[in-house]
Amino acid sequence: MPEQEPVVDADSWNAAVLDLFxxxxxxxxxxxxxxxxxxxxxxxxxxxxxxDPRRWASLNYAPEVDENRSGTNSPFFPWSPEETGKSLHEIxxxxxxxxxxxxxxxxxQAANIPDFEQRxxxxxxxxxxxxxxxxxxxxxxxxxVEAHRNPDADLLNPDTEWDCLSVYTTDCGLVALSxxxxxxxxAFWED
Length: 191
Prior knowledge:
Order of helices and strands: HEHEHEHHEHEE
Strand order of the largest sheet: 2-1-6-5-4-3
Shape: globular
Radius of gyration: 15 Å
Strand content: 15-25%
Number of helices: 6
């Protein structure tokens, strides 16, 4: 029997975001869709120029560095929408859900999450809660190169490279897109 989609509200959203993105070098923020070309909206969220339309929790736990590498105090380089789009590859909902969990682990591997096997059901539920906010017709994109070749790649423990979009040594993330909102969920690694 398939898992029932969770009902998302402010409390369940906050709990899910903290479960998957609290305690690491992570970023989780949602902004409104304002443009026909969603790439303009994603770069607005990445530039820290968007507010969650529902005013629900967002996190920016990017590593602190001694310099403002982006010139905007954002963890992301100020790429144009076109440049950003070249690094993002569409994936299916199942791959997106697995990737959200992987972002919690060191080097974007669920196998590196302490007590993963004991927490697996809770982590998957948090992932489903986050994705349910964007609805059944949502689309998902990642900077995992494997997704360029295979949009249904298993990204729970990916063996892939990343098209980095941040100012850090490496990064991995997911963009969730509905008709009205865009979410950016990212993890960073800094030497």
